[in-house]
């Protein structure tokens, strides 16, 4: 019997987790695992509600912010060191969570990504805006389009001052994209599905959580190559890669190691839950 754990906060309230748990495969058992229930016993190892772990493969969806996310992440790393296979691996999740590390690695590997500057002073931030003309200020750690500000050179000093009070700011060159971007879901080195996300009227952010509309599409070959390379580069089994068309071709703007995929599944008709479970089964069999 292959046992697979679906790791997520409050799994009963997460429709994606419920879709994963509803997948039926002969000889496969799926169980939800709230990461806040993880613990450690020495000698021994990582436990779940003080019991030894049984699932050989873990599908990691999200941590539980009601507890200590740092402790939960440490325990996921320890579980991997014990020999459990995590999808996605903790190291890949950590890199993709950090826009600093993601942007640097993409550019170093020759994957197009918008010019980016981090600034710790108002003078540095003004200089970056003067260079870019317009920029998107993003939280270094964040997702769902939350906390994004579109700034123009010489016009938004007040916003910069407020942002700098909280620490360094991440400024990424704004590339006009017609208020839409491209989301490609990569799994195991192949494209599982793709959508254009179109921003609602009066909004420049195309994130679904910000009211964006999904349109299924066949992604351009160049964008597919960039998405697959970015996923592999960050050490991820699967990822939601966001791209926009810019000077010279497609630019990767985000690599999401814990992507939301329900909107994509509905738009494309792809059974993403079954594909993830089948991939986890193949991994379990390959690792023995």
Topology (SSEs and partners):
Blueprint: E1 2-7, H1 15-21, E2 28-33, E3 38-41, E4 45-48, E5 51-52, E6 57-60, H2 69-81, E7 85-87, H3 90-97, H4 99-108, E8 116-119, H5 122-132, E9 134-138, E10 149-152, H6 157-165, E11 169-173, E12 180-187, E13 190-198, E14 213-216, H7 221-233, E15 238-246, E16 249-256, H8 262-268, H9 272-287
Parallel strand pairs: 1-2, 1-6, 6-7
Antiparallel strand pairs: 3-4, 4-5, 8-11, 9-10, 9-11, 12-13, 12-15, 13-14, 15-16
Essential attributes:
single chain; 3 domains; alpha+beta; 5-stranded antiparallel sheet; Dna Ligase, domain 1; 4-stranded parallel sheet
Structure description:
With 288 residues, this protein is an alpha+beta fold. The chain folds into 3 domains: 2-87 and 274-287, Rossmann fold; 95-112 and 177-257, ATP-grasp fold, B domain (D-amino Acid Aminotransferase, Chain A, domain 1, 2-Layer Sandwich); 116-173, 2-Layer Sandwich (Dna Ligase, domain 1). It has 9 helices and 16 strands. The protein has helices spanning 15-21, 69-81, 90-97, 99-108, 122-132, 157-165, 221-233, 262-268, 272-287, and strands spanning 2-7, 28-33, 38-41, 45-48, 51-52, 57-60, 85-87, 116-119, 134-138, 149-152, 169-173, 180-187, 190-198, 213-216, 238-246, 249-256. A 5-stranded antiparallel sheet has the order 14-13-12-15-16, sandwiched between helices. Strands 2-1-6-7 form a 4-stranded parallel sheet, sandwiched between helices. Strands 8-11-9-10 form a 4-stranded antiparallel sheet, with helices on both faces. The longest helix has 16 residues, at 272-287. The protein starts with a strand and ends with a helix.
